[in-house]
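Thread: "does anyone have the structure for this chain?"

Original post by V.I.:
We have the sequence but no experimental structure in hand. Need at least a predicted one for the grant figures.
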Amino acid sequence: MKQDRTDWLNERRKGIGGSDVAAIVGLSPWVTALDVYEQKLGLVPPVETTEAMYWGTMLEPAIRQAYSDRTGFAVEKPEKPFVHPKYTFMRANLDGLVINDNRIAEFKTASTSHGWGEPGTDEIPEYYLTQVQHYMAVTDKPVCDVALLVAGRDFSVYTVEADKELQEQLIEIEAEFWDKVQKHIPPEPATYEEFQRIRKQKFPVSGCLEADEEVIQTVKEYLQADDEEKAISARMGELKKRIAELLGENNAFMLNGKKLVSWRRGASCKRLNQASLKTKYPDIFEEFATVSVNSPSLAFSRKLLSA
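Reply from O.Q.:
Generated one for you, tokens below.
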């Protein structure tokens, strides 16, 4: 029976799945440890299904069949997730369980083969390597085949063997992360934007520290970088203005029969005039108005450093 998406999301909150691991160890190009933390606690809305996710799900049965045809392995998709017998926070929603051999299978789609090695090897992207090692740790399987369909037409199979040393490292990192989830302690933010997200959840209302030499130097470097960025932005504006002047009344500069620089019409869009709506229809405005809180941001005093 096909699992409902709501049930699937609730199941994911019970522990750490294979697709969470790369983010937790800092290898995911799409998601951070803080993202996973907030998802587990239900602090953010569920991730919306992207086109890539949609087609990955739709093509999974076809890839499963192709894998079976190419390898001769009989494979089925388990209806329920596996749970590690000792570390119960570790869970595995497998794409495929091989029933005539002691191995599991994972099915992927990609637009290009960038990051993948020669078919038949174990050279898969690091963010998928952590996923399949997690799965093998949970299921105690010695091998995981990763079947890849690139651009809807190029099919390959990669074979990854269990790496017990790596699995032990992952277990230690995952255990520490899950402990933080249970205690509602956010992981270390990876970016300034993530610092802002944490501050938005719990804004400090008191407490001041005296700036030491490290703080002063870091602030000076930031302000210098800020000045450099503004100078670069101003210079870019000057250059774009000069190019526009050189174009004059023409639409484009051509180079070897192709457009090097050209004017592009701005997109038109309708915007709600909130001031007019509030004045003419205050009741409607109040009914549909929502309050949003912007993330806090750092403020700097240049005068203190220039004194």
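V.I.: this helps a lot. The first helix runs from residue 5 to 12.
O.Q.: and The mean pLDDT is 91.
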